[in-house]
Specification:
Arc Repressor Mutant, subunit A, two-stranded antiparallel sheet, 2 strands
Amino acid sequence: MEMATTLRDFIAQRETEIRDQQKALKAELRELQIAKAALGGQASPPSSAPSGATATIKEMARQVLSGQTSGLNSSGILDAIKKEFGRDIERTSLSPQLSRLKEEGELILNGEVWFTTSNFKTIETQWGNPAPPVNGDFGSGFDDDSEIPF
């Protein structure tokens, strides 16, 4: 059984690495498009991000959560979608999409807070396993106060 856990960890890590590479490549492509537009005299480069009118709920949720390292609860996701995309989404429409993203390994639900897998892994790396509680009670990181070096 330990081998399966290790394989799952490897797959999750590779997915995170590939998504990070995709983000970096998209950012570089965007910069190249801006430079190309400037050289060609175009008014503005093509947008790489989906607009509110064309983006799916999954795309919007993925995008707002990718910029939230501390994660968001469902209400926060709805608020962020409204702010970033100008669209009112019903919670009953959002919840199944979040569940699908979770099943696809793109999101993690910790308590009531949703994280992208890569943001959650970053938090786990910083704070140890498991990820810190979502209520903000991170503690001192020491087993007892006698270990605190000050």
